[in-house]
Amino acid sequence: MTGRDDDQHEGGCGDARSQRRDALVQLRLSKHDSRRDFLKGIAVAGAAIAGGAGCADEHFQKHYKELTDEDKRHVFQRIEQETRAKTGVRVKISDPQPLDGVQFAYALDLSLCNGNRRCAEACARENNLPDEPRFRYIQVLQMERGTVDLERGEHYYEPEKVPQPGKVYLPVQCHHCEKPACIKVCPVGATWREPDGIVVVDYDWCIGCRYCMAACPYFGRRFNFAEPAIRPNRINPEQGYLSNRLRRAGVVEKCTFCLQRTRTGRYPACLEACPTGARKFGDLSDPESEIRVMLERKRVFVLKEDLGTIPRFYYFYT
Amino acid sequence: MRSAIGAHQDLSSAGVLAIIGLAASLAVAGCHDAQAQAAQSEPSSTTASSAAGPAVSVEPRAKLLPTFPCSSCHQHLKPNPEKRELKEFHTVRNKELHHGDSAAWCYQCHSMANIDRLVIARGDLVTFDEAFLLCGSCHGDKLRDWKLAIHGKTMGHWRGDKIKRSCTGCHNPHAPKFPAIEPEAAPWPPTGMKAH
Ligand code: SF4
Ligand code: SF4
Fold this sequence. Notes:
The complex is a heterodimer. Chain A is of the alpha+beta class.
């Protein structure tokens, strides 16, 4: 169960990839982080493969931020074709851009949450999370009523019915921090904060070192230890390049506020799935938005506020 | 935005319980006020949209009710306001009726004059699609929050058309406590916050 699992699927490409990874890590750790060093690093790793012709495209793919529109067209097409060949599913890769002046934020009414995990499940379907291993971006913690002790929260609870008497529930996902600890530690710049506040990962740039996972105080990130397995009929074909496109083994992923939906004005999947209406989402910079109206009227709190991460994920009680 | 940040910055994690208490007492204190407000507000139509802006619609209810219109039977019956055990019809409703004090009875909410309408606390008749006005005539604080989309489920677009679920779309008006439901499966493998 290692990142090597995907090597077989890629017909030898994976070897090169792992070498690139190693080269990149070493480069990043030993040197400074100018873009030029980076490319050199890739060239080194690239030189290490002898004639991996079919993979050259992906292999030399640039960082998302360096992709021109033309590059994007090629890359998206390649991904669409590869996905078709591998799964038989015709997917559409899109790259919706941040909306002007929009600052996304999320809020959750803890007096309503009953721990049913519909949100986590809808998220998994929307964002093409693997059937196996069954990890989830949204982790719902079950705690004793009257406590908010994250470290002692239980998230493998499996009673017949929820809510259980005497328990309260607190869902946690990436908080899209204004000062994200995860981004600071990434040695290769594979994760960053977009202008609308969404923290994203370039799955083709991530080297799987998992520094970001260690740095995140909210357990917001997940790692693909194994090649993610998803049944073709469960694949959501509407895929964002920076969000729900299919991932491979050895990379880190997380909640992206469903940017493939939210950047086109829709609500995130988790919000629409919540049967208790506990989830709120909107534009923090619009004084009329639902989230602003809520913030102005209710007392809210954030998790581990003392760490200074400034989450964009608020909890409140009604 | 400033007030949001201000609000959370002066709270330590240890203060969470205090907040719960505060929120609760505010809700209670605000109740009567809100009730008066709610009663005065004009009945909102099911679609409230500004001329050019996006539409906010409320999910209709009447058409989802299998026995609506009630008058198709009740036109042949004489209304009987007496609280009693219903033996022929509405036996399930009768059994499950668990709303407010034990005095709750059909004609507290259903209109005796027009059985296809609901009657709100101050005596006005409203349609089943406007049930939120009826609920809000007692639960003013919730109606206020629902109108602001703080309480309740909203679907569609955060920017664009929205669909709001009415009170009775989530709560059974005869037994409004949200029922316990089966949770989705737990995640696997266990590498969560605790293990982290
Ligand atoms: S919650 Fe964790 S993963 Fe998300 S932005 Fe904050 S530090 Fe990064
Ligand atoms: S695992 Fe995290 S820190 Fe490491 S390269 Fe990927 S995004 Fe960056």
